[in-house]
């Protein structure tokens, strides 16, 4: 069954995937929009041993909309390249130990968001 699905992806994905790859026109016409709700603290004070469900200390809430065009090859490539540039140019501002880190923590002290302003057609961040 797996071999049949790999040989005929267009049939089993209702036309979404094929061996030819993505259609350039469809990539350019694609867009995305996400609305996020963030809860946190108004100051950067860290609370040791904070329990995830302890909402008594949370004093700030933001609603954010992230949108852009061509999320696959456009925004994905821009995010990857700007992240790599931030690591190369501003690696001294990142956490010392490295490892697997959430992007918000890893790039907190860098200028990565300012670099995204040059690519506003791929990534737009709006605080609602």
Structure description:
The chain is an alpha+beta fold and 128 residues long. It has one domain (2-44, 66-127). The protein has 6 helices and 3 strands, in the order H-H-H-E-E-H-H-H-E. The longest helix has 20 residues, at 71-90. The protein starts with a helix and ends with a strand.
Quick summary:
This protein is α+β, with helices and mostly antiparallel strands. It has one domain.
Write the layout of secondary structure elements.
Blueprint: H1 2-7, H2 9-12, H3 24-29, E1 31-40, E2 60-69, H4 71-90, H5 103-106, H6 112-116, E3 124-127
Antiparallel strand pairs: 1-2, 2-3
Organism: Lucilia cuprina (Green bottle fly)
GO cellular component, one term: plasma membrane
Protein name: Saccharopine dehydrogenase-like C-terminal domain-containing protein
Q: What key attributes describe this structure?
A:
128 residues
Helix content: 25-40%
Radius of gyration: 20 Å
Q: Which outline best applies?
A: elongated
Give the domain tally.
1
- Tell me the major beta sheet: 3 strands, antiparallel
For the largest sheet, list the strands in their spatial order.
1-2-3
Element string (H = helix, E = strand): HHHEEHHHE
Number of helices: 6
Helix/sheet category: alpha+beta
Please state roughly what percent of the residues sit in beta strands, choosing from under 5%, 5-15%, 15-25%, 25-35%, 35-45% or over 45%. Answer: 15-25%
Number of strands: 3
**Mean pLDDT, all residues:** 83
- The unreliable regions are none
Organism: Lucilia cuprina (Green bottle fly)
Protein name: Saccharopine dehydrogenase-like C-terminal domain-containing protein
